[in-house]
Amino acid sequence: MEAPQVGLGCATLFAAGLVDLIEVAARHQFATITVRPASFLDAIGSGESEQGLRRRLGDAGIAVRVIDGLSRALPGEWLLDPDDPKLSHLPREVFNPPSEEDCLRAAEALEAPLLSVAHFGHAPVPAEQLVDVVGALCRRAAARGIGITLEFVPGTGMSDVTTTDWIVRSCGEPNCGVLLDPWHWSRSGGTLDDVRKLAPGALNALQLCDRIPELAGTPYTPMSGRDMPGEGELPLYELVEAALANSPGITIEAEVINAGLNAMSFDDAAASLAKAVATWRAGYGT
After folding, report:
1. CB count, 10 Å around CB of 99?
2. What is the pLDDT of residues 110-120, one digit of tens each?
3. If 227 and its partner were Cys, which of 119, 210, 223, 272 is the partner (CB 3.0–4.6 Å)?
4. Residue 2 region, left (φ>0) first, then alpha (ψ -120 to 50), else beta?
5. How far apart are CA 179 and CA 176, in angstroms?
6. What is the chain's mean pLDDT, rounded?
7. Close Cβ partners of 117 (under 8 Å, ≥ 6 residues apart)
8. Per-residue pLDDT reduced to its tens digit, 19-36
9. What domains, with CATH codes, occur in the chain?
10. Residue 15: left (phi > 0), alpha (psi -120 to 50), or beta?
11. How far is it, in rounded angstroms, from Cα 36 to Cα 14?
12. What average pLDDT does the segment 127-143 reach?
């Protein structure tokens, strides 16, 4: 069985500017990337043009698959306090994220087919309260040729794969799907059967990473602690096989956020990830 191709998730190199991300991805033979909307805006602000960025991507042989992402589009109290010492490790843009228009502009300019949407940073609300808002967002995105992928995060209104799939089906918009992140899937208590039972085509993106569950009582620290594919304890091969059985054309990018990679240069971090992905892919289907 041929292993799926795996691209480079932007949060792995969160501090990298867009041009740096493109160049590093090309040097380490990642054919696809996800892109932070803030990095697109920063690139434009520093003098890059939309046409010039597309040219850079084309010259490098890189395709942008997901703009990651929009986090202030859904209802619910915003909880992230930039003065909270427990959140001091988070990038400042997390507290003041780009707008829907900025995210859609980035997707159009970089020819990304998907915009990810999360409820991260919000107090949980009933899933029923999200359906109409998600549907309206999907229609606005569809008018610009863009799909929506909903990323579930435990403790939010989109808390697990089953709830998020229900929101997708309830909003009824054909350009909407679920983003599967093994980290959040594991944290939410997800099972392989949860993924296998999804209606065909429910998924449209996957962020590849691994996890060693923390000891009971360990405080949760967002955007930290993820392991390289194959270096944790998750059934990643089975999970990816289930995802591909559901959606054969799903885009897969490795998103590994941890202190070790953050301390490395962009090239060293990308090289480490590329090596781990190659090792993981070599064992696929065996």
Report:
1. 13
2. 999 999 999 99
3. 210
4. beta
5. 10
6. 94
7. 69, 70, 71, 73, 74, 134, 137, 148, 149, 150, 151
8. 999 999 999 999 999 999
9. 7-282 (3.20.20.150)
10. alpha
11. 8
12. 98
